[in-house]
Amino acid sequence: MIVYLDQNKWIELAKIYHGKLSPPGDVAFLKEIKASIECGYKYPLSAIHYMEFSRISNVERRKRLGEVMWKYSKGITLASTKAITIKEIETSLKQFFPNIKPRPFSLICSGIEHTFGESLGKTLPDWLNSFIDEAMLKGHDVFNIEPISHFSTKYRENFRYHLESLHQTKAKLDKSKWENWLYAMAITDIRNPLAIVMKDNDLDKDVFENFSVDQLNKFVDAMPSRSLDLHLHRQVLKNPNYKPKISDLEDWSGLGVAACYCDIVVCEKHFASMLKRDEFKTHARVVTNLYEIFENVA
User: Fold this and answer.
1) Is 102 within 8 Å of 91 (Cβ atoms)?
2) In terms of pTM, does the model score above 0.90?
3) 35 alpha carbon, distance to own chain's centre
4) What is the separation of C-alpha 165 from the centre of its chain, rounded to a whole number of angstroms?
5) E strands, 131-260, where?
6) pLDDT value at position 206?
7) Which of 218, 227, 210 is nearest to 95 (CA)?
8) Distance in angstroms between the alpha carbons of the first and the last residue of the chain
C-alpha cells in the first residue's frame, strides 16, 4: 500500500509526533502508522516534498519536520516526474507503434536521486547514500550540516501566472476550439520527455503530423498524469472566480501524479474536491484526514 501525504499532512504528522498537536487518539494513530510500515505500507517522498521542505526558513523547524519525514518514509521516494512521464509516453505510443519497448521503470525506490531523476555521477556505498539522504532532511550536528534549504519561488510564480491567464486565453477562442487548446497544452508540456522517447525509438520528429485530432487526443488520454492535468485545467476554466494560489504548482505536480499511481492520497479539502469533480476517477483513494488512511482496511 503506497500512501502519499501532502506536505501539509507531513507537517501535521510532525506536530503530532512532537506533541505540538494532540487530537484524540494521537498516540494510537502513531502506533498504527508504525504497524502499517511493518506490514508493508510505504509513505514515499517526492521531489515536491523536498522542494517544499527546503523553503522552510527556520532551521529547527526543518530539522523537526525532517526527522519525521525520514522516520516514516524510511528514505523511500517516488520516481521523478520525468521518469513517470517517459513511462507514460512510451506506453501510450505503443498503441500506435507496437515496436516500442518501454524501458524498465520503478515507481518507488530509495533516495533523493531517484525522485529527482538525476545522478550524482558517482557510485557510492549504500550506507553513504543513506547518510546523505538522511542528512538532507535532518541535518547532522556532528558534521555541522543543516537540512537542505532553497527559497526560490520562480517556478511557483510562473505556474500561478499560467493559471491566471487561462480565462483570458479562453475568451479569445471560439468555444469549439477549447478542447483542442487544452490537448495542445498537454502535449506542449511534455515536449522534452517526448523528444527523448522519439529519439530513443527512432521516430521521425514529424510523426504526429499524420495523426488525426482523435489520435492525438487518444495519445494524451492514455497517459494518466496528463489526463488528470486536463481534468484540473477544465475545473479552472469552469470557475471564472478561481483564484490561483502560490502552492498550486506543488498540488498539481505532486498530488496530481500521486493520485494516478499511489493507493491513498491525503491532501487538503480544496484539492480533493477538484480531483473528484465531474465524477473523475483517480487510482488513489483521496482523503483529507490522516486518520482516514486506515478506514475501509479489511
Assistant:
1) yes
2) yes
3) 25
4) 23
5) none
6) 84
7) 218
8) 13
What is the Cα–Cα distance from 40 to 106, expressed in whole angstroms? 17
| Residue 292 per-residue DSSP state | G
Q: How many CA atoms lie within 13 A of 177 on its CB side?
A: 9
φ, ψ for residue 263 (rounded to 5)? -90, -35
Give the model's pLDDT for residue 120: 61
Give the chain's residues under pLDDT 50: none
pLDDT for position 3 = 98
pLDDT at residue 199, rounded to an integer: 93
CA distance 84 to 20: 36
Nearest alpha-carbon partner for 54 in 146, 151, 154: 151
Cell numbers standing for residue 96: 500506435
Query: For 99-119, what is each residue's pLDDT tens digit?
Result: 998 899 999 999 998 999 876
Local structure of residue 95 (DSSP, 8 states): T
- Strand 285-287 and strand 264-266: the pairing is parallel
Measure the CA–CA gap between 253 and 266, rounded to whole angstroms: 15
User: Which pLDDT value is given to residue 145?
Assistant: 83
Q: What stretches of 96-228 adopt beta strand conformation (E)?
A: 108-110
On the 0-12 / 13-18 / 19+ scale of CB atoms within 10 A, 7 is: buried
Task: Provide the pLDDT for residue 159.
Answer: 92
